[in-house]
Amino acid sequence: MKALLQQGDVKETFIADEEGEFHIETVQDVEPILDFTKASRDHQFAGGSGDMQHVAEIPFVVALEWRKQGIDVFNPAHSDMVMAKINSPEYAYLRAAPTLRDPHIQIKGIR
Fold it and tell me: Could you state, in order of their start, the residue ranges of all structural domains in the chain?
């Protein structure tokens, strides 16, 4: 049995296997988000002023993966771990700014 739920660009498929266990497959087209972050870095319009700076765009499917690793992008207590991920070479493509002014900027949401 399969059931599909779609909200925006995120598609979730609920799958029941032969043993009666359920699995959820989550798929998202992240290309528009990555195109935006690249354009932001290239044209440096992600800057911001004062205490605010657009730091990154975190696709929903990436936030789910991080959640499995114990990092909740919505938990202010996890902001240091989120920033460590964003600053790592592995996730550099999520950054909307070429450099970050403040390493303690909190992430308020995901796409």
Answer: 29-94
